[in-house]
User: Fold this.
Amino acid sequence: MTPAPENVHWLFASAFLGLSLFMLAEVIVGPEVWAKRPWRPYLWPSLLFVLGLCMWSVMVFYTNSAIHMIAHSAWAQVMMLAGAAELGLARGKLKSTYWRLAPFLAFVVTGTGFLVHEQNGWLFQRSAFLHHLLGWTFLVASVFPFLRAFRPRSAVWATGFALTFMVVAVMLYTDRDVAPIFGHLSPLAGNPHR
Assistant:
């Protein structure tokens, strides 16, 4: 028996919150101080990579249509790519700054995936609204990893990048599968769970 979809969203929200806090801590203390402990630079890239691995299980167990399976597998691939690229940069195995564009690609693919895989309108139910909001949030916020790729020492772009994950975590914590949004629930959505 699989848990309710909102429970899975809450687990991912907790991981995104941790990701955001690791990234914000690095921005606050600075990269030099953050790297004084040799394991710290690997924290958030490793977590991002593991989130990509976990997304594969979501693709397998929570697939109710082909578009959902394609979207979840695309998210898994780009999260793993972004995590692996950042791990390679942290380790020093990757030298080119263009590898920092992997999180930008992940944001664009994720935002597009959220918008494409939600087949209902904004006010159909809370989860539909959430998918639209998350999609546009990732697309608009993709400016942060893009600019961070070319200005990796900029605290502004790194902070925006980190806060995006915090905003996404808050959005995911608000998820309920069938619930009204702004007092509106489509009659086609079914009965609210709570």
Observations:
- Residues 5-173 form one domain.
